[in-house]
Amino acid sequence: MKTRIIIALMLVALVAQAAPSIKTQRFVISDSIRLFEREDPDGNGYKLVKTVQMDWPVTINGKPASALTRYLLDSLFLASGANHDIVPYYPTDVNVIKDFVGDCVYRAINNNTMFDEYIKKSPLAVPDVDGEQFPLSRWTESLEFTFSHCEQDLAFFKSCYEDFYGGAHGMFWTDYLPFDTRQGKVIGIKDVVTKPAAVLRLLPKYDTRPAEGAWWDNVTDIDNFYIKNGKIVFVFAPYVVGPFADGEVEVAVPLSALSKRGLLTAYGKKFVKQGNSRRRR
Questions:
Q1: Strands, E, within 133-197: which ranges?
Q2: Euclidean distance between CA atoms 241 and 105, whole angstroms
Q3: With CB atoms 3.0 to 4.6 Å apart as the test, which of 30, 174, 265, 266 could cross-link to 51 if both were Cys?
């Protein structure tokens, strides 16, 4: 009897430590608009193409991902109260969410006055512009939201944004979303570290780039991060901590180093990698 009880308790412990089961459903929305064109439909102008790809979380551990769905709709598509009139509630059905996102994409490319300013300053606004010299320009915006990985009960999703409006290059960045599947809430940096400002001051030490090429003086927050294999990795978009040539910069800090300095919360200490996985012979 005692043996059975011990085995049962061990199984319960193993289940509790297992990574969360996350089911997602992919959908892709793409829309476009001609922002400016001559009388000839195939002539000069600007065409904006906006694409959204979503691996939308449907269930977490077999239960509806309601809290995460609400957060995603708020942060990605309902910011500042926009688009609330399309769906007056928070939909849970993925097909309804897909239609809702499609409407948001349509609004985004039809209501953006920024492009009017680009057009006014463009050679295309000149009446006698040569059609062969300035063909149709293609501007693009894309957003891809995917599930990344889990660390214990903490699931990381990432949102990758990219755009191009002409010029030497476009712009891109990745935002990470840590979601605690047990507590059902989004986790921020203050849940993991006790003093974000103190952690920020340590980052140049763990930056593997040449010191003269790093920009750290104007960095004010470290909210974009993920945790993996006992390290917390801070992610910075191009131009934040270095030139565009550096691309997206990641700085990895061992959580054990932060723990020794007293910079981890009780929650953050759960992810410290204990000991050496390799046994000495």
A1: 137-151, 154-164, 171-180, 185-186
A2: 31
A3: 30
